[in-house]
């Protein structure tokens, strides 16, 4: 109960800190505010070298640029502004030959430990050590992205994600398939391959909900010869709701429906602000996992603060 | 079509990686060849002293030239019948190895130094004792039914 009060107080403080920015922007002119952030997000930083003059025609480059300009994937998707919810993937596509970067932190101080003033003394957990992740994502082809995510316990996860179908007037869902492979000790030991599907449904530009069944192998930290279950089948469930022009609430839970399932199911919620090509997210989780194998190993009885910071390079 | 090509590449890689689990040898330390089967446990634990200096069990639990300590003969060929489903001579009411139940097997209690054992934790003379990894292997053999494999 105490931890719930602490988390709620902290979430409220964060929300109050973020909301005025969005409200101030909306008060001027909501459409302008949106247009500004969107143009910042879509303005191609690499639209062409500055020294290229009108006379320096490059037919191939011009065609490529024109194609890129026409690529709807470069436009901001207000229902799905980021490639992850908190830790689970979304169906947002990376434009072809464009990329994005993400940093994740999950701080180790349990929020339910000690009094609220103790928590404030520890700056709500930010003083403690963190599980840190760095992620780079690249649009290999249209609708196909690859990502590499490294956490500071020297686990590296590679991800290949391909959109099978996108939501449009004729079909109400977006469906992606993905394959992942993670390995400990800088991808030298204990490999955990995974396969999964991400199904999403956008509700106008206000919200998106997700269901993602996936399987991960070698999730048990012990060798397969010593364990009953070394695979986990999970059903990721999540949602992102746009609260104001650029502020979102996010939630996800990853129940293990079969196989190795120690501890509690990993659960996270948070609040985030989109600012141009950036996404700033403060989140609360009962676990530290940011790779699929780590998620399979479950969470604790405590809650921890963390953040995601992502940047699109387009 | 492109999706099928991707899947054709991804699935074999996934299957290949699925075979790349943690190495048992990383866990079992001084006995890298120890595996959860009786022949391996006999060879690596009961019959052999390991590089940590741990004594072999058959130094005392043998019928060769002496009476086996605690009436338990762990010499190869006799050990399985002496262990699995057999009552403890030292502590009546306890069973040395209960197939499927490592927690209540007296062999495990003696090797781990559990509360309530009679006499010393094994191996005697205050160690070196079996490592956590070695115990996990013995526990696994019992949990899987303590077969004579």
Could you please describe the fold and organization of this structure?
The complex is a heterodimer of chains A (314) and B (149). Chain A has 314 residues and is α+β, with helices and mostly antiparallel strands. Chain A has a single domain, classed as Porin (Beta Barrel), CATH 2.40.160.40. Chain A has helices at residues 2-28, 30-42, 59-70, 116-121, 184-187, 292-296; strands at residues 99-107, 130-141, 144-151, 155-165, 174-183, 189-203, 207-217, 231-242, 247-254, 256-259, 266-275, 278-285, 304-313. Chain A has a 12-stranded antiparallel beta barrel. Chain A is globular, with a radius of gyration of 20 Å. The termini of chain A are far apart. Chain B is mostly helical. Chain B has one domain. Chain B is elongated. The mean pLDDT of chain B is 91. Chain A binds chain B through residues 141, 144, 160, 162, 164, 177, 179, 181, 183, 189-195, 217-218, 221-226, 230, and chain B through 2-3, 6-7, 10-11, 13-15, 17-18, 20-24, 26-27, 35-36, 136-137, 140.
């Amino acid at each position: 109960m105490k931890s719930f009060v602490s988390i709620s107080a902290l979430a409220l403080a964060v929300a109050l800190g973020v909301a005025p920015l969005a409200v101030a922007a909306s008060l001027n002119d909501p459409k302008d505010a949106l247009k500004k952030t969107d143009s910042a997000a879509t303005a191609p930083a690499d639209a062409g070298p500055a020294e290229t003059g009108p006379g320096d025609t490059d037919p191939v480059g011009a065609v490529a640029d024109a194609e890129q300009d026409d690529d709807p994937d470069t436009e901001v998707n207000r229902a799905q502004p980021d490639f992850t919810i908190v830790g689970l993937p979304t169906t947002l596509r990376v434009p072809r030959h464009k990329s994005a970067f993400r940093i994740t932190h999950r701080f180790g101080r349990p929020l339910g430990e000690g009094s609220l003033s103790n928590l404030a003394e520890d700056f709500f957990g930010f003083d403690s050590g963190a599980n840190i992740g760095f992620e780079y994502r690249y649009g290999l082809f249209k609708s196909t992205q690859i990502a590499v995510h490294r956490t500071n316990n020297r686990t590296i996860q590679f991800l290949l994600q391909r959109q099978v179908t996108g939501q449009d007037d004729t079909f109400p869902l977006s469906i992606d398939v993905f394959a992942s492979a993670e390995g400990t000790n800088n991808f030298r030991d204990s490999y955990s391959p995974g396969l999964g599907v991400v199904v999403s449904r956008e509700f106008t530009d206000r919200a998106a909900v997700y269901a993602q069944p996936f399987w991960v192998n070698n999730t048990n930290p012990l060798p397969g010869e010593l364990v009953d279950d070394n695979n986990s089948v999970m059903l990721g469930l999540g949602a992102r709701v746009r609260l104001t022009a650029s502020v979102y609430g996010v939630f996800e839970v990853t129940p293990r429906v079969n196989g190795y399932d120690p501890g509690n199911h990993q659960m996270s919620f948070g609040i985030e602000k989109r600012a141009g090509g950036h996404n700033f997210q403060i989140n609360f989780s009962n676990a530290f996992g940011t790779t699929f194998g780590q998620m399979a190993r479950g969470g604790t009885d405590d809650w921890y603060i963390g953040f995601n910071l992502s940047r699109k390079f387009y | 079509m492109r999706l099928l090509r991707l899947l054709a590449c991804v699935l074999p890689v996934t299957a290949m990686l699925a075979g790349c689990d943690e190495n048992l040898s990383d866990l079992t330390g001084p006995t890298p060849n120890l595996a959860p089967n009786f022949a391996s446990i006999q060879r690596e634990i009961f019959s052999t002293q390991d590089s940590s200096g741990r004594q072999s069990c058959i130094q005392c639990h043998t019928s060769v030239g002496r009476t086996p300590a605690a009436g338990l003969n762990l010499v190869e060929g006799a050990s399985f019948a002496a262990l699995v489903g057999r009552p403890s001579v030292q502590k009546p009411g306890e069973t040395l190895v209960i197939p499927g139940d490592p927690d209540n097997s007296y062999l495990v209690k003696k090797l781990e130094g559990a509360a309530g054992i009679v006499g010393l934790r094994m191996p005697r003379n205050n160690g070196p004792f079996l490592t956590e990894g070695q115990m996990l292997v013995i526990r696994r053999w019992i949990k899987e039914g303590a077969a004579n494999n």
